């Protein structure tokens, strides 16, 4: 247990852009990614807006260098993981002891749900290749195998906090000197399974979502993948352009309140943020920006807001939910938002919160509504909270 | 830093929820699927909850509760779960209805419980445990990843008592689909004859095994976990052998120091060579015990093997019907578990008597 863990780079593909640069441009232009479904086949097309990646499986497969028959989640994962590694400028992965720690929530469900139509007609029907990569871990292995990563390959699934937990585990593999480099984050493609699941919970907004707005009425689902490259001190010293920032603190806590709902006090949220602050040795006032979990549901934003009030009052940092652009990308969200947060430290970016108009009555703070660059953001917090009471908070810090 | 198992709990196709007598007899089955012997859950879970919970969740809670009870711990500092398949039963229910009803008239219960971290989340909910909670879903490394996470937490002194386990269930859907991949025996086989089988395929299994881990040895200590390694898709036999030898060297022992090798052979003629090579080349002369004729084959079966190894060390007794080759060891100080899943996922877990 020694040394720092550095963010050497990052990659994102999601509903607002095929790479990180395109995502930043979408934020600057205030263009959220929610639209009518183009690629997912569902009876909810035209009713429930989603933030889809704007490419079909054939195009993604060609870009990823994987067969179009594998899960869209694997395609998205490979594209973002490769972009993340390329952004470090380190060249070949071969010289490094490398891990891939990836999160997802439903594995190859996009293919399994296609399989089930024929299979339910007759148990010997349905094409087996569609369920070959059903397991969450199988999606990760498709990417690891394609990138030649073998030392540590693992998959985490803790619902909507999965991606953040992947970063925590990856950072600890480096601090324990098990590997030098970890590509950590998450991926999830839209599926009818998750769309209908969230729809039965009645937390999907038929309008573009409005996180932390008093009129918010639920979330919009999105899809994508996001990975950071975490490296040890020794590897950070070799980075041609230097690291983006450090991963200075992280914590996971459990709300232990309900399988899907957050406690009204936001107990788990509070404990995760507080734990991350303690690990990084910071005070609440040191945090310059929070990338909120901010799903736009009544329950999440109220609980998250309560925990923020308890921890930060009376001085609140800038904050926003980038899910108002990307939609809630579930297992990918912790990874995507980690990339945005790490870049926020490096480039001083405060991301806007789209569709915000009416402040929540309960709280004195409001999210940022415009894009700005060049802010001095020494410490940035990223929150991810999920089903099963799973709450995670990460802190990214500058080093000058 | 030493890491000790302070308590164990296991739900499996054998009578494992009762610690004494330890595997007095092996339950015999005929067929290609071993179903867990489920305990009366009412001793741990409210009846109203039992009716709503999926089997995998109940098995996980039972095993977790048993290990907490044996360790004398009410509240762990962390809960870490490994499950390759997650909550298959509820996933299958929601998926089938969604497809059959063409996305209409659906209810949320099965979806809510289909999330992969439901077992870990429900244990936390039941205990009121706000501590670290993580779930690894990485195929046949799910339990191994959970164990590595737990050992790191203890080494970081981020936790003093970690509850860690592995759990997976079979459902009718999963068994039917995995059968179509040719994973299981075509002709009926008795589980007690599985390891001597000369045909392809194995028997599917399921179960949950949880452990309380701590760093201080006490009167309740069951065994010590000395080492853990995973080897993913080794390029060739040389790489595999080198990894095993490096593992032994890292723990200052040689193959001669291993009193018992618990081997993950599963009766699949096509996979025997992985085990035979290791048993005969690297651990020649070492007593070898099998375990998949007891629990069946599933990605987190290594958690069952860890339970078995810990109980053998603690009781200093190798139950009847486990020895696969060699002579029953007179003394049991050190056990190595070698598992290999589908020829691609190899893991080693080293246990010591305390």
From TrEMBL, chain A:
Domain of life: Bacteria
Annotated PROSITE patterns: KS3_2
One example of a Gene Ontology biological process annotation: fatty acid biosynthetic process
GO cellular component terms given for this protein: cytosol
Keyword Phosphoprotein: no
GO molecular function: 3-oxoacyl-[acyl-carrier-protein] synthase activity
Transmembrane portions of the chain: none
UniProtKB keywords: Transferase
Record domain Ketosynthase family 3 (KS3): where: 1-398
InterPro entries linked to this entry: Beta-ketoacyl_synthase (IPR000794), Ketoacyl_synth_C (IPR014031), Ketoacyl_synth_N (IPR014030), PKS_Beta-ketoAc_synthase_dom (IPR020841), Thiolase-like (IPR016039)
Family: Belongs to the thiolase-like superfamily. Beta-ketoacyl-ACP synthases family.
PANTHER family in the record: BETA-KETOACYL SYNTHASE, POLYKETIDE SYNTHASE-RELATED
Protein known as: 3-oxoacyl-[acyl-carrier-protein] synthase-1
Source organism: Chitinophaga japonensis
From TrEMBL, chain B:
Gene Ontology molecular function, alphabetical: acyltransferase activity
Superkingdom of origin organism: Bacteria
All residue ranges annotated as the Beta-ketoacyl synthase-like N-terminal domain in the record: 47-176
Protein name: 3-oxoacyl-(Acyl-carrier-protein) synthase
Organism, as annotated: Chitinophaga japonensis (Flexibacter japonensis)
Phylogenetic lineage: Bacteria, Pseudomonadati, Bacteroidota, Chitinophagia, Chitinophagales
